[in-house]
């Protein structure tokens, strides 16, 4: 029994999520733009003293070959640096922590 039929279905699902639910557009190393799920949530590592936002971006990792911690990803025209480890799930979907590059 081959896993190929399941893999093809999983790729279709990833592609559909990325196309239909994307709320931002990203570009990696000047390549073709692709849809991403970009999220900004409150992060409170210092209690009430500092207001900090946690930025995350999710997408199918095939759009960014060779991506790693420290790489740059342009999201909606703003260059962001990947600040955490790059570990795709079994389906190739990745969730990364990013921070705007200044």
Structure description:
The chain has a six-stranded antiparallel barrel with strand order 1-2-3-6-5-4. The chain has one domain: Thrombin, subunit H, CATH 2.40.10. With 102 residues, the protein is of the alpha+beta class. 18% of the residues lie in helices and 39% in strands.
CATH class: Mainly Beta
* Mean of pLDDT: 84
CATH topology: Thrombin, subunit H
Helix % is 10-25%
Kindly give the count of domains.
1
Using the CA coordinates, give the radius of gyration: 15 Å
Number of helices: 1
User: Which of globular, elongated, flat, extended, rod-shaped describes the shape?
Assistant: globular
What is the second-level CATH architecture?
Answer: Beta Barrel
Low-confidence stretches: none
What fraction strand?
35-45%
How many beta-strand runs? Answer: 6
Q: Largest sheet, order of strands side by side?
A: 1-2-3-6-5-4
Largest sheet: 6 strands, antiparallel, barrel
Distance between the termini: 51 Å
The SS-based structural class is: alpha+beta
Output the helix-strand order.
Answer: HEEEEEE
């Amino acid at each position: 029994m081959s896993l190929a039929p399941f893999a093809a279905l999983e790729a279709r699902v990833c592609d559909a999520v990325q196309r239909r639910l994307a709320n931002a557009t990203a570009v990696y190393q000047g390549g073709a733009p692709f849809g991403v799920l970009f999220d900004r949530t409150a992060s409170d590592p210092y209690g009430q003293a500092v207001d900090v936002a946690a930025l995350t971006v999710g997408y199918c990792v095939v759009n960014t070959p060779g991506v790693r911690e420290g790489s740059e990803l342009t999201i909606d025209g703003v260059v962001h640096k990947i600040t955490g480890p790059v570990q795709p799930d079994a389906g190739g979907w990745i969730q990364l922590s990013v921070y705007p590059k200044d």
